[in-house]
Design brief:
Blueprint: H1 2-10, H2 14-43
């Protein structure tokens, strides 16, 4: 019972990995967009 629970926690579903990657990409885009906006506002 314990071994099955541990292996289930270690194995990630493909959908779960995809969601995590997309969340990371969107977070990077938000940070980059905010940075570009601040630079543009300060230069203008």
């Amino acid at each position: 019972m314990k071994k099955k629970e541990k292996t289930a926690k270690r194995q990630y579903d493909k959908g779960e990995i995809f969601v995590k990657i997309m969340a990371g990409v969107l977070a990077l885009l938000m940070v980059a967009g905010t940075g570009v906006t601040l630079v543009y506002a300060l230069m203008a």
